[in-house]
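FW: tagging you since you asked about this chain on Friday. Here's the raw sequence from the shared folder, copied in full. Didn't touch anything.
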Amino acid sequence: MGKYVAQLSFTAPDWDLVTPDLARLHNSACPCLSGDQYVDCCARFHRRDADAPTAEQLMRSRYSAFVVMDPDYILSTWHASTRPESIDLDADMLWRRLDIVSTSEGGPLDTTGTVEFAAHYRLDGERGVQREVSRFVREGKRWFYVDGDVR
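HL: got it, structure written out here
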């Protein structure tokens, strides 16, 4: 599983107290790079107005949640069997770009899926890339992140 470094720590009881930091968006564009505005894209998932229909869309919305520092959404979309009690996010971590490398299964009719991605960031003036193959499972109509292999 990837390492999430931090200044801020949130636990499940704090979920409904967190408001995403929309100031971290660039021109109101969705960080998942869909080409849509955040409010019309991943924000609908973050607000719980809709569930991500595919594993890839869940991956994109989770990435966007890291960008806007929404630990509530990250924890709520993490499968209960592997979800940590809390997650730490680093306010100095600036997520810059998400590249979806490949997907396997994870469609609206599948029950499992994998998404390989590269998430580019800047931290303390240095550039970095987190590469991961993430596993997802669908229960009912909802997709959940299970775990991933960081490369």
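FW: The chain is about 15% helix and 35% strand.
HL: agreed, and The radius of gyration is 14 Å.
FW: great, closing this out.
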